[in-house]
């Protein structure tokens, strides 16, 4: 395979991954003639050792499911410690919780925990008879 063909193949793979990371509403918009796609070239920082970056909706949904089935805050925090900031932001988008780009990884972990397992634990504590 020529270098140019290899480069095209890699570029198409990246475009495919970007399209897979869009939610259905974004894909629907993109298909409409009044919207256009733009390509932005960014250098990606590699994840720190031990961190994972999840980008597909399937992986985000899987992580959200695990969080919702966590029994304790500590268990949920442990699930999230191996994630990158980008992954945590993807989870927050998936559960429709606002966040700020300036939030630290620790802040994002806390926000995710509070809006998944924390919410459920508080509801269960309130509904238990005294």
Descriptors for this entry?
130 residues, mainly alpha, 2 domains
What does this structure look like?
The chain is built from 6 helices and no strands. It has helices at residues 3-20, 24-31, 57-68, 73-81, 85-94, 105-127. Helix 3 (57-68) crosses helix 5 (85-94), helix 4 runs antiparallel to helix 6 and helix 5 runs parallel beside helix 6 (105-127). The longest helix has 23 residues, at 105-127. The chain is elongated, with a radius of gyration of 18 Å. 14% of the residues are buried. The model has no long low-confidence stretch (mean pLDDT 85).
Number of helical stretches of at least 4 residues: 6
Distance between the termini: 71 Å
Kindly state the mean pLDDT as a whole number?
Answer: 85
Rg over C-alpha atoms, rounded to the nearest angstrom: 18 Å
Order of helices and strands: HHHHHH
Tally of discrete structural domains: 2
Strand content: under 5%
**Largest sheet composition:** none
Main structural class: mainly alpha
Instruction: Kindly state the percentage of residues in helix.
Output: 55-70%
Shape, per Cα inertia axes: elongated
By DSSP, the count of extended strands is: 0
Enumerate the spans where pLDDT stays under 50 for 5 or more consecutive residues: none
């Amino acid at each position: 395979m020529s270098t140019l063909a290899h480069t095209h193949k890699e570029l198409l793979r990246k475009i495919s991954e970007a399209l897979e990371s869009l939610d259905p509403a974004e894909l629907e918009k993109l298909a409409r003639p009044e919207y256009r796609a733009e390509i932005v070239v960014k250098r990606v920082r590699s994840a720190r050792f031990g961190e994972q970056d999840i980008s597909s909706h399937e992986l985000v949904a899987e992580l959200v499911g695990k969080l919702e089935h966590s029994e304790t805050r500590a268990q949920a925090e442990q699930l999230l410690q191996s994630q990158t900031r980008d992954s945590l932001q993807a989870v927050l988008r998936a559960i429709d919780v606002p966040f700020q780009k300036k939030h630290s990884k620790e802040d994002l972990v806390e926000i995710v925990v509070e809006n998944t397992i924390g919410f459920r634990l508080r509801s269960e504590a309130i509904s238990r008879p005294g």
